[in-house]
Amino acid sequence: MPLNKNNLPIPIYLWHREVLIFKIVIDNTNKTDRTNKESSSSELKNSSRRVLFPKVVLFDMDGVLYNSMPNHAVAWVKSMSEFGIHFTAKDAYATEGARGIDTIRQYVKNQLGKDISLDEAQRMYNVKTRYFHEMLEAPIFPGVIPLMRKIKSTGIQIGVVTGSGQRPLIKRLLDDFGEFLDKDHIVTAYDVKRGKPYPDSYLMGLEKAGVLSPAEGIVVENAPLGVRAGVAAQIFTIAVNSGPLPDDDLVKEGANLIFNNIMELLTAWDGIVKYIEP
Ligand code: CA
Hints:
Elements: H1 12-29, H2 37-47, E1 56-59, H3 69-82, H4 89-94, H5 100-112, H6 118-134, H7 144-153, E2 157-161, H8 169-177, E3 186-187, H9 200-208, E4 217-221, H10 224-232, E5 236-240, H11 247-251, E6 257-259, H12 262-272
Parallel strand pairs: 1-2, 1-4, 2-3, 4-5, 5-6
The structure holds calcium ion.
């Protein structure tokens, strides 16, 4: 545990912040270098000050495993306009991670001034889901499979925690990642009453993996509300900023580390995590 200038232990959450701030400083001074080896090795040296021994890595789905957010944004805008709701692509990114039905109820209340039932919100969400599925299937991000393989091979469990409630979702996750994941390690919108940014879904992800302590988990997230949920669950939270929002939106929520994409995270992984040999 590092000590501050008065030789007192630095609380863990501040310690994380320090790591993060260090990386952001690198980024600001050397923006063009952000993806090259030099900057990632400096970042690695620093982040390795906190060595993690995780038992489970909990991945968010949209924007982390799949490059699906552009399609989601289109489906949101198109479906909500049918209900007289002004919803922009930017709104889709800003509300990403929350349960769709919660987002819909909030927008209906704000813009139409009425409270709608969960069932009504679900019917509206079904329209959004239909548009989403009419589009081409979103691809898996490069690096996801090798990262999962690396994690699994060292005896660490893999879970997926999503605010999404599309019905065929579990099937697709198992088709794509069945080698690393089973259905008992998936948390969806239907598993929790309070979606992200509440910590509930990530805590349930730990529970499903039989992991009792948040200190034994790692969250991988791309959205501000998702990072807030991981941090609220007191789990070490890695942000992968795969969308158009500025890094600062993720920093403000308390992300412990930030990467541009999963490939960068894959490269840095061994420096962040120490394995307990299976
Ligand atoms: Ca996401």
